[in-house]
Amino acid sequence: MRAIFFLLTFITSFTLTAFQSPTPTRIQLPISNLQSPILQSSLTFESFSVTHTFGSQITFNVTAKSDADVTAAAVLMRSGDSDRTEVIQASVTPSKNFKGQVTRELQAQPISPFTTITYSWRLTDSQGRTFTSAEQTYTYDDNRFKWQTLERGAIIAHWYTGDLTFGQYIADTGFKSLERVSRFINAPLPPKVNVYVYANLNDLQSSLRLIGRTWVSGYADPKIGVVMVAASPDLIGRSDLERDVPHELAHIMIYQATRSGYDRMPVWLDEGLAVNSELQPRPDFAAALSEAVKNNSLIPIASLCGSFGNERAHLSYAESASLVRYILDRRGGAVKIKGLLNAYRDGATCEGGVQQELKVSLIDLQTDWQREVLNSNPLLDFWRNAVPGLVIFVPVALIIALFIFVPKQK
Ligand SMILES: [Zn+2]
Questions:
Q1: Is the pTM of this model over 0.90?
Q2: CATH number for the domain that contains residue 99
Q3: Residue 170: helix, strand or coil by DSSP?
Q4: Which residues surround ligand 1, an ion (CB under 5 A)?
Q5: Is 273 a member of any domain?
Q6: How far is the centre of ligand 1, averaged over its atoms, from the C-alpha of 213 (Å)?
Q7: How far is the CA of 217 from the centre of ligand 1 (A)?
Q8: Domain range for residue 83?
Q9: Phi-psi category of 47—alpha, beta or left, where left has phi over 0 and alpha has psi -120 to 50?
Q10: Is 152 part of a structural domain of the chain?
Q11: Residues 261-311: tens digit of each pLDDT
Q12: Which of 200-214, 217-231, 277-291, 377-391 is least confident?
């Protein structure tokens, strides 16, 4: 009985040692382990490749050689700067000359265009050992188009319609805008910004369809340093670039200033600063504002703290731009903007940031802005101020006039 017990103990300890999984390693060289001859298996990753159909799916491929059958495989992937690692299991035919493939669908779980994907393969062999490859990167670009590329400073311009002169114009506009915006929004320049110029709005919006931005005329993904706009290679397109490139670069710079606080930034401040960075005036916004004032249909600023949505988006932008201009011109200027950005970076609420920096509630800020900017039509102001006096003066004047000018009966 005692002999059987010792035998069992020996077998158990041997089995545990033999099948203990090693710490996951990068590309494996043959492993020698003096404790057990069973651990002499090895696996070598031979190739990695990725292809994608834009807006549909990404396919990951791997080949590996192993001295034991590979029985399970998975891709571990992160997109952009996401903390979350997705695990995508492959269906596997066991083999020593292993070829693996997995597909990640994009319809249900879209990925932003031009995001860099970081991934590794994890293979398991018939002995239960795991091998994890070194991390690989892949850019999920909009490969429906053949992009040309040109750099100036931190700006990398990409375009697919128009000649090199147009490409240079994009790079120059981006360079000039980034310099200007970085003075306007005090923050360190990003190391690189990729500016993708689509030839028309249709192409741009179809690119952003899966991430739900079908109505925008420009888009920035500050976390990955990507700007997407639409402009044709002609004079109208150049004017569009001067409006949209500085606007989107302002979002990049606001992210540089606020980092992890960017998602909490009130949208009226983010968009208001972006519109004020544009190199072209926006008469359409002035018209929208005076129309809203006339109809008494202004959107409360408190409703512009979160996302605008596409209903009344135009007026939302117009109000945000005007309010930020008001802060810049009459409520302390760039110093206060910097203070607001710092407050939101540090976690202030929409209301709290305004109270902390401008010493006023959001509703009072709105009242001041409406009174000092929107209702400050000089003619209107004159009549508003004059009316109380006129109420007394006009009847008195009429009575005096009657005495003077009505002919007396003889
Ligand atoms: Zn914007």
A1: no
A2: 2.60.40.10
A3: helix
A4: 271, 274
A5: yes
A6: 12
A7: 9
A8: 23-140
A9: beta
A10: yes
A11: 998 899 999 999 999 999 888 889 999 999 999 999 999 999 999 988 777
A12: 377-391
